[in-house]
Design brief:
The chain has 17 helices and 21 strands.
């Protein structure tokens, strides 16, 4: 009898222990996820009673809360700049949750972060609170220029400060207007229709191409391959054979150049190969140093790692596994050759390419991109400041050589067609890129990246934009980058 009682007591004790552990998991480990779940309507009703803080770019209001006519949901979120900043601010929707900055900085916009004594007292006494202000690094003039320069073409533009990583412009087409999703919750059918239109659009406007879409970088990746060669014993004067088509090892495949012939005749130096964007040269660079060293250098620039950013950003990969991020690189020699010219399975986001261009122009430092400059109290007092983060990834000698190669490219190479107004000054460097998509009959994506004092820019135009198969990076993406660089240098007297 006593044994049976002990068994029952043991079973009940284990059950209570399991219940206790589960409650702790729910209350502690999962409390934030549960509290912020989109279906938690009680919390949302509470949040809608708070005047959410503004999101600003300079003096420009990107997101604000205004008094509504709904007594239950006192404030309604408005986005005065609509499509121009929609993917950056994201939306704050009663039915579909929050995205982008509205999600990342939700607690700050509600006045809960950073925590203050005043916040604690307000919560304790049930007093009305007001959210903090988020100040962005975006330059509104450059943002408008990015939209105008890209026009109706599909693609994206990213511009950053090469010293601090502060994002100056971030735009993509297609884009979307967050206002229909963030209107009065009583307008259920209108909100649902707006959502259905967006999610069923084959252009995928809710996927922000500047940060969430990765593309084959084509010849812009030769920046990384050149850096890998320079870091591993090569110099700009190291020469290579210059065949019409390069025979690849372990296969009957050959690799050709853009114009179909040799790039210089005879032998060609790395510097010349970079300036004229010679595929066979950089395929040989990649194979000579090997996949392991090429990948190691790419990782220094930020590929094959989880990106850290204020809004969602896809990983850039040496070997992209569609739908699963970066695969473990294991490249054959032919695959290494194609990877060295930014093809095969190499995929990068436009923002990542701006980071690569910045490293080439700032002396060999990789910067972490930052979209938020500071968090301010409702009264304008600074609560949190941008903290630049950067690390040296290239030797000084490598960085100097790489920078000069990019300067020569805009002076007398494939980038000369862009026509930078200060190309001869030695302040601007760039690189073109034309990337095959791997889809038969589809025109290539075209790229241009550049650095100048205080700015680094990357632009990609999908499928050649308005020129289709006739497009090149210099002719189509180059003018987009030029518009931003020239305007920045003119205003900053660089």
């Amino acid at each position: 009898m006593n044994r049976s009682i002990r068994r029952v007591a043991l079973v009940l004790g284990l059950a209570f222990l399991a219940l206790f552990v589960n409650l702790n998991i729910v209350q502690l480990a999962k409390s934030d996820d549960l509290a912020n779940h989109a279906s938690n309507r009680r919390l949302l009703v509470q949040e809608y009673a708070t005047r959410r803080g503004e999101i600003l770019a300079g003096d420009l209001v990107l997101a604000e809360s205004v008094e509504s006519e709904n007594p239950t949901y006192r404030f309604e979120r408005h986005y005065p700049q609509a499509e121009l900043y929609g993917p950056i601010t994201g939306y704050y929707s009663f039915y579909y949750g929050a995205t982008a900055l509205e999600r990342t900085y939700n607690d700050a916009l509600l006045g809960k972060d950073p925590p203050t004594t005043e916040n604690f007292v307000d919560d304790l006494l049930g007093r009305e609170t007001e959210g903090n202000v988020i100040m962005l690094t975006i330059d509104p003039r450059l943002q408008r220029l990015a939209r105008r320069a890209l026009g109706g073409q599909r693609g994206a533009v990213a511009a950053i400060d090469p010293e601090t990583g502060a994002v100056r412009a971030l735009y993509a087409n297609p884009t979307y207007d967050p206002n229909p999703l963030s209107q009065d919750p009583r307008n259920v059918s209108e909100i649902q229709d707006a959502w259905a239109t967006l999610v069923n659009d084959p252009a995928r406007p809710l996927t922000f191409a500047a940060t969430q879409k990765s593309y084959p970088p084509g010849s812009t990746f030769k920046i990384v391959t050149a850096a890998a060669g320079l870091e591993n014993g090569m110099t700009p004067t190291t020469t290579f054979p210059d065949p019409r088509r390069l025979d690849l090892p372990d296969t009957d495949r050959t690799l050709g150049n853009f114009q179909g012939g040799s790039c210089a005749g005879g032998r060609i130096s790395m510097a010349t190969g970079f300036r004229v964007s010679c595929n066979s040269t950089f395929a040989q660079v990649a194979m000579k140093i090997g996949a392991e060293k090429l990948i190691a250098t790419a990782e220094k620039f930020g590929l094959d790692r989880d990106p850290v950013f204020d809004i969602p950003m896809a990983a850039s990969c040496v070997k992209n596994d569609p739908g699963a991020g970066c695969d473990v690189p294991a490249l054959s020699r032919p695959a290494t050759a194609y990877s060295g010219i930014g093809q095969q399975d190499v995929r990068v986001t436009p923002l990542q390419m701006a980071i690569i261009a910045a490293a080439a122009g700032n002396g060999g430092f990789r910067v972490e991109p930052k979209l938020v400059a500071r968090v301010l109290s409702p009264e304008g007092e600074p609560l949190r400041e941008l903290e630049p983060a950067r690390e040296r990834i290239l030797k000084k000698k490598t960085a100097t050589s790489l920078k000069q190669m990019m300067i020569d490219t805009v002076r007398s190479g494939t980038g000369a067609v862009v026509g930078f107004r200060q190309a001869s000054s030695g302040k601007i460097g760039g690189k073109t890129g034309t990337a095959e998509t791997g889809i038969e009959g589809q025109p290539p994506h075209v790229w241009f990246v550049a650095f100048a004092p205080g700015i680094a820019v990357a632009a990609v135009v999908e499928n050649g934009g308005d020129l289709g198969d006739a497009a090149t990076g210099g002719r189509v993406a180059g003018p987009i980058v030029k518009a931003l660089v020239d305007d920045w240098m003119r205003r900053t007297d660089a």
